[in-house]
Structure formats: structure tokens, C-alpha cells
């Protein structure tokens, strides 16, 4: 029987399978489960909840918008559809795994804040823009939440993932500071998103504590982990993978390259771009430390991926310290007892914090153990 509950069950199954991913299948089981959930959600028209204009279009045929049961049911349907949207964007990475949900097909407003959800209060949260070039219209929005901001960021992440999977900088015809490039446009979207965050949603330990007091710390952590991942994945495009001959960040070493004489680099462009990568990795490590003080780190596959990404950036900085000019990922703080079987980079400093967290998570998430193995192999490679 088609039902919202069945969609939710399939999403939970896909989420579990994603966390148990092994290298060879590459998350195929999760991708299939989430795909089935999306098809069922589309059959149930969960993406058209706010397109209803007549009593027969609303859940259970109720016409009164003040009916708390109807308000609650509509919000559950929205959240279920956005659950599909989030996992669709997370798993649609790599060639051959395209997204199934297009933003222009979503006629639902973003999730409301938790207190409005608990009290079944009708609010206006706004919708995702219909295209990546369209700005969100927030004039009538009267409710904002970390969750709705997270979904807006997921939309941007989907574009970054698509860009990276398609070849990233190899698809560009102009240097990255040119406004015609996809890189520049995506970077602008991230900057606008950052600038639009209310003060209480920005990254700081004090803000984390505020959200923790309102049982919203998990959404807050997810928001900032994804924000950091997005910065790393976008700006890594112009950092050489093995910069042996580089004195510091100076753009890619393989074609297409952009010589100083021919293109007249904007002052500090390469250094600023590289710093986004290392600063974002350090922010993820700081989030880990903040959460682990009370053992409150969300056991999410997205958080796991963020920790792995930070650990890899730290490993890169260890082997090529000239690239991390402000030494964001450098440190001498001893994190674990000396162990000859573990490389030194994973025993002290920010990288060790990320590595140890992955190691701990590997006891219940197969994907974490896969990441640990890759990090050990990459240390030997570098």
C-alpha cells in the first residue's frame, strides 16, 4: 500500500545502507532504496502539498487551514519529501547517478521551525528558487529555521556535486575568477548563502550551545558540516593533487593552466581559494571537538563524510605544508598514545582528531572503516 509511512521506511533503509557502504558496490543499495522512496513520494504527490487550492486537494479533504491536524499532516508530508530531496542530492554523485527530483517540480514550502511544528502553527517559510539563477523571494517569510537553511544549502551542494562529477575545472573555458565560469557562479552562491545566515545560525561554539538548548544542535551541525564540505569540494578544483614543485598555492599544474603573464591573476586569488579548503577542514575539526565534549556528535553519514574530508585535507597539509599557508590544519597537540602502527600525522594535531573520530565510528559504520583504510593508504602514497 502506498503511504507516507512507507516512503519514510524506505528512506530510513536507504540511510542505513548508505552508512554501511563498501568500496565496490559504492552505495548502490542505498541509491536504489532512495530511488524507490522518491518514486513512491512522487506517486503520492508529496512534492505538490502547497499546490492544493480546493478542499478535495488537502489531506483528508479538510478545508480549514486552522485545523491543527491538517497543518501537522501537511508539514509531515513536506518534511518527508524534503527527506527524499536531501538524500537524492547526497547520493547523486559520480557519473551515471543523476538526480531524480528537480527543484522546479517542488511546489512545497520549506520545513518550519521545530516549535511551530510541535504546536502545529501555520507559517510561511518560503520555497526553493525555481532555478540556480533565481533568488529566493523572502518578502513574506515569517518563520526561519536551521533546517530550512540546511535544505537551501543542500540545493547548492547538488550543483557543486554535479559540477565536480562532470569534470569540474576541466569543463571551464575561462579562468576561475571570470564571472562566466560555473566555478565563480557556485562560489558566489555560497558567499550569498553565508552572508544571508542570521547571526544565531552562523558558526560559533556559543551558537551551537544555543541550538543545543533547544534540541536543534543536530541540524546546526549538519548545516555547518555541509557548508564546509561544499567549500572544500569547490575550491579543491584548483589545488594540485601532488604539488611537489609548488612554493605555495599558485593554481593548477596540469591543463588548463592560467599563467600570470597571460591572465594577470587577481592579487591573492590562489591563496584565498586554498585557504577556503584548509579553513573549512579546521572548522569541521572544531565542530567535532565541540560536540564530543558532551558526546553529542550526530551519527550521520553526512557528518561521517565531512570528518573524512577534513582528515584527508589534514593529511594533504601534513605532506605539503606550503599549501596551508596559515597552518589551519597544523598542530602539535597529542591526541592518542604513541602507536608505531599508526602514522605520526594521525597521532597529533587537527588531523588526528578527525582520524580518531573516524576510527571510533568504524565500530558501527562500515563506511568509516573504509575511510580509515583509505587514509592509511594515502599516507603511504604521498
Automatic annotation (TrEMBL):
Domain Xylanolytic transcriptional activator regulatory: 30-117
Subcellular location: Nucleus
GO molecular function: DNA binding; DNA-binding transcription factor activity, RNA polymerase II-specific; zinc ion binding
Name listed for the protein in its UniProt record: Xylanolytic transcriptional activator regulatory domain-containing protein
One Pfam family recorded for the sequence: Fungal_trans
Listed InterPro entries: TF_fung, XnlR_reg_dom
GO CC annotation terms, alphabetical: nucleus
Transmembrane region(s): none
Main location: nucleus
Keyword Nucleotide-binding part of the UniProt annotation: no
Keywords: Metal-binding, Nucleus, Transcription, Transcription regulation
Swiss-Prot/TrEMBL GO biological process terms: DNA-templated transcription
Amino acid at each position: 500500500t502506498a503511504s507516507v509511512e512507507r516512503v519514510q521506511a524506505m528512506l530510513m533503509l536507504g540511510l542505513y545502507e548508505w552508512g554501511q557502504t563498501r568500496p565496490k558496490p559504492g552505495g548502490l543499495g542505498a541509491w536504489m532504496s532512495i530511488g524507490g522512496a522518491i518514486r513512491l513520494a512522487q506517486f503520492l504527490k508529496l512534492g505538490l502539498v502547497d499546490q492544493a487550492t480546493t478542499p478535495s486537494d488537502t489531506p483528508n479533504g479538510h478545508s480549514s487551514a486552522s485545523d491543527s491536524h491538517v497543518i501537522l499532516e501537511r508539514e509531515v508530508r513536506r518534511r518527508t519529501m524534503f527527506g527524499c530531496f536531501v538524500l537524492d542530492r547526497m547520493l547523486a554523485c559520480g557519473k551515471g547517478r543523476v538526480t531524480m527530483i528537480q527543484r522546479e517540480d517542488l511546489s512545497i514550502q520549506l520545513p518550519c521551525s521545530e516549535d511551530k511544528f510541535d504546536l502545529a502553527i501555520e507559517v510561511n517559510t518560503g520555497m526553493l528558487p525555481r532555478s540556480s539563477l533565481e533568488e529566493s523571494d523572502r518578502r513574506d517569510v515569517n518563520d526561519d529555521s536551521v533546517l530550512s537553511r540546511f535544505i537551501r544549502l543542500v540545493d547548492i551542494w547538488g550543483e557543486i556535486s554535479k559540477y565536480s562529477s562532470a569534470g569540474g575545472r576541466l569543463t571551464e573555458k575561462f579562468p576561475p575568477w571570470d564571472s562566466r565560469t560555473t566555478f565563480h557562479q557556485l562560489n558566489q552562491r555560497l558567499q550569498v548563502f553565508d552572508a544571508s545566515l542570521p547571526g544565531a545560525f552562523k558558526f560559533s561554539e556559543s551558537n551551537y550551545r544555543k541550538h543545543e538548548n533547544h534540541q536543534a544542535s543536530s541540524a546546526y551541525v549538519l548545516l555547518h558540516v555541509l557548508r564546509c564540505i561544499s567549500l572544500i569540494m569547490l575550491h579543491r578544483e584548483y589545488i594540485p593533487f601532488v604539488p611537489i614543485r609548488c612554493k605555495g598555492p599558485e593554481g593548477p599544474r596540469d591543463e588548463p593552466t592560467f599563467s600570470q603573464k597571460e591572465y594577470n591573476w587577481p592579487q591573492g586569488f590562489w591563496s584565498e581559494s586554498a585557504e577556503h579548503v584548509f579553513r573549512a577542514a579546521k572548522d569541521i575539526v572544531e565542530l567535532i571537538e565541540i560536540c564530543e565534549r558532551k558526546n553529542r556528535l550526530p551519527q550521520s553519514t553526512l557528518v561521517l563524510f565531512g570528518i573524512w574530508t577534513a582528515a584527508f585535507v589534514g593529511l594533504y597539509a601534513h605532506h605539503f605544508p606550503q599549501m596551508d599557508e596559515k597552518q589551519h590544519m597544523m598542530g602539535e597537540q597529542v591526541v592518542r598514545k604513541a602507536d608505531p602502527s599508526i602514522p605520526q600525522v594521525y597521532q597529533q594535531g587537527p588531523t588526528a582528531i578527525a582520524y580518531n573520530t573516524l576510527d571510533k565510528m568504524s565500530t558501527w559504520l562500515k563506511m568509516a572503516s573504509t575511510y580509515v583504510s583509505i587514509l592509511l593508504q594515502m599516507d603511504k602514497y604521498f
